[in-house]
Write a structure and sequence with these properties.
The complex is a heterodimer of chains A (254) and B (276). Chain A has 254 residues and is an alpha/beta fold. Chain A contains ten helices and ten strands. Chain A has two domains: 168 residues, P-loop containing nucleotide triphosphate hydrolases (Rossmann fold); 72 residues, no CATH class. The radius of gyration of chain B is 19 Å and the shape is globular. Classes of the chains: A alpha/beta (254), B mainly alpha (276). At the A-B interface, helix 3 of A face helix 8, helix 9 and helix 12 of B. The structure holds adenosine-5'-triphosphate (ATP) and magnesium ion (MG). Magnesium ion binds next to helix 1 of chain A.
Chain lengths: 254, 276
């Protein structure tokens, strides 16, 4: 089991009084790209937030790199440093004065107490390398208040990439990227997975992209409805069970 | 208008020196914590705490304890109470703070009617008396400033992440609750120690105005935090000089100078904003 980056076992999460995620179990191996699909409100974001300790869970166990996530959402700092997360609606106050360089640099340090000026040089190098990887080197000195939605996405991707990780969790990450950006994005994920062995867990509504790029699919509607290779999990029968029959008819006729 | 030399002579008096140092310390602390306070939409907190401090002061008078030694414990309890209420009710911060401060003001005034005559005078509670600052107060302020600098400095990146997007920070293993609590307690202590000098009515200006001026002039976060603290200190120095030269009350003079800095920041930048 040493190659399993993430193990989720019997996870149940409540939002207020409503079980948004029920008895979900799965494992992610090193160097794989897994997609979570399902209709709006299916509990996909809730699931990954519980895995990260952002939302509390009712029952179940979560192991990241072999370390258990405590009830209160605590993981050892060195494990945290191996995880990157890109939330769904990264809506923040654009009046906050911060440059893209500073934002990306936040991803580099492990966040214990430290002097603010420690490790300046290696941090700066890592930041430019990460920005170059997402083709956004020119955005570095810009304040985030000036970025377009897609440029913001690139900056955040750089924030995830700026330090080598083992687990990358993306909540509808490519939404908002232009055509070229999207294909480069999937190329980048492929390279991280192949060359560096990252395990990737991405929530997506783009079933065609999932078919093309992912190794495995989890179909979720509160609980796991089916899982397996894209060909199997995204077969018409399984899609009916996840999305309802209306959806499949729509996709076939248009 | 007094001559330059007579003003300089004024600042050789020990109580004026203490007032100046006290003003600088308060300005630095207010600006430093204020930079995060306004971004976290807690601007109203210092105002609410200032007004609620009247309750603390009346409680002290009623129990026969020196009001100034009640203020700090009161401020901490107030901060923890507000933090709990915010977490618990998830109501809008400004609405909740309004409830807390108007009710503690009401209760404070009712309590004051039982106290009878207060020697210190309501005026000095409302507007403060920076000239009455003792060296003991200065030491407390200096220690507190040290604590604030250490806390913000050593956890700067965590603080920035928490300010930007809390889930993102939690995903990195930052305990949002712990950081929020420490921050609000520090802010309460800063407001509590500064009330004697500045008064309950004007204290929030020290937290809000320099930070807003710094926001207008900065584009990087680190620069913004440092500038905010420096502008806080600059406002205090200018205000003390103005107050000495024109014989004005010092708290209001400092706030007026902070306003002047803010107005300059409004007309000055734009071009600078795009260049820096
Ligand atoms: N902040 C919230 N408070 C309470 N309940 C919530 C909250 N956010 C979502 N929910 C509930 O939890 C359920 C799952 O929501 P979640 O955001 O996980 O869905 P999702 O699968 O990510 O949907 P989408 O595709 O729209 O992003 C929804 O039914 C919703 O009603
Ligand atoms: Mg979602």
């Amino acid at each position: 089991m040493s190659t399993d980056v993430l193990v989720v076992d019997g996870l149940t999460v409540y939002r207020d009084t409503y079980p948004a995620v029920q008895d979900v179990s799965f494992a992610l191996a090193e160097g794989t790209d897994t997609a979570i699909v399902g209709p709006n409100g299916a509990g996909k974001s809730t699931l990954v937030q519980a895995v990260l300790g952002i939302l509390p869970r009712r029952t179940g166990d979560v192991l990241v790199l072999g370390q258990p996530l405590s009830r209160k959402g605590v993981l050892p700092a060195r494990v945290r440093q191996q995880i990157a997360y890109l939330p769904q609606n990264f809506l923040f106050d654009r009046r906050i004065p911060i440059t893209v360089n500073e934002l990306v640099a936040l991803g580099w340090d492990s966040l214990g107490p430290q002097l603010p000026w420690a490790n300046r040089q290696p941090r700066r190098l890592a930041v430019s390398r990460a920005l170059a990887e997402v083709d956004a080197l020119h955005l570095g000195p810009q304040p985030i208040s000036r970025l377009s939605g897609g440029e913001m996405k690139r900056a955040l991707l750089a924030y995830c990439l700026v330090h080598p990780r083992r687990l990358l969790i993306l909540d509808e990450a490519p939404a908002g990227l232009d055509v070229r950006g999207e294909s480069e994005f999937y190329q980048l994920l492929y390279q991280l997975k192949q060359a560096q062995g990252w395990a990737i867990l991405q929530i997506s509504h783009d079933l065609d992209m999932v078919r093309k790029h992912c190794d495995r699919v989890l179909c979720i509607n509160r609980s796991i409805r089916c899982q397996g290779s894209p060909d199997y999990a995204l077969s018409p029968d399984n899609l009916v069970s996840v999305y309802g029959s209306e959806f499949v008819r729509y996709r076939h006729h248009h | 208008m007094p001559s330059l030399t007579s003003t300089l002579e004024l600042f050789q008096l020990p109580f004026m020196q203490r007032a100046l140092i006290g003003g600088i310390l308060t300005g630095l602390m207010g600006g430093l914590l204020g930079s995060f306070t306004i971004l976290r939409q807690l601007s109203f907190f210092s105002d609410a705490l200032g007004h609620s401090a009247l309750l603390g002061i009346s409680l002290g008078l009623l129990l026969g304890i020196n009001p100034s030694s009640v203020l700090l414990p009161f401020a901490v309890v107030f901060a923890l109470g507000v933090a709990y209420l915010l977490e618990r009710t998830r109501l809008w911060t400004d609405a909740l703070l309004n409830i807390v401060y108007s009710s503690s003001l009401a209760i404070g005034v009712i309590l004051l009617t039982f106290v009878g005559q207060y020697k210190g005078g309501i005026n000095s509670i409302l507007f403060g008396d920076i000239l009455a600052v003792r060296s003991g107060n200065l030491w407390v302020s200096a220690l507190l400033l040290g604590a604030c600098v250490l806390f913000v400095g050593l956890t700067l990146r965590s603080q920035i992440l928490l300010t930007l997007h809390e889930p993102l920070a939690i995903a990195r293993g930052i305990s949002a609750l712990t950081h929020r609590t420490i921050f609000i307690v520090l802010l309460a202590l800063v407001v509590g120690t500064s009330i004697q000098a500045i008064g309950v009515l004007l204290i929030s200006a020290f937290v809000v105005i320099p930070a807003c001026a710094a926001r207008l002039l900065s584009r990087s976060f680190t620069g913004y935090v440092i500038l905010s603290a420096l502008l806080g200190a600059l406002g205090a120095v200018l205000g003390m000089v103005i107050s000495a030269v024109f014989n004005l009350p010092s708290g209001p003079a400092i706030v007026t100078m902070q306003l002047a800095i803010f107005l300059v920041a409004i007309v000055l930048p734009r071009t600078k904003l795009s260049a820096v």
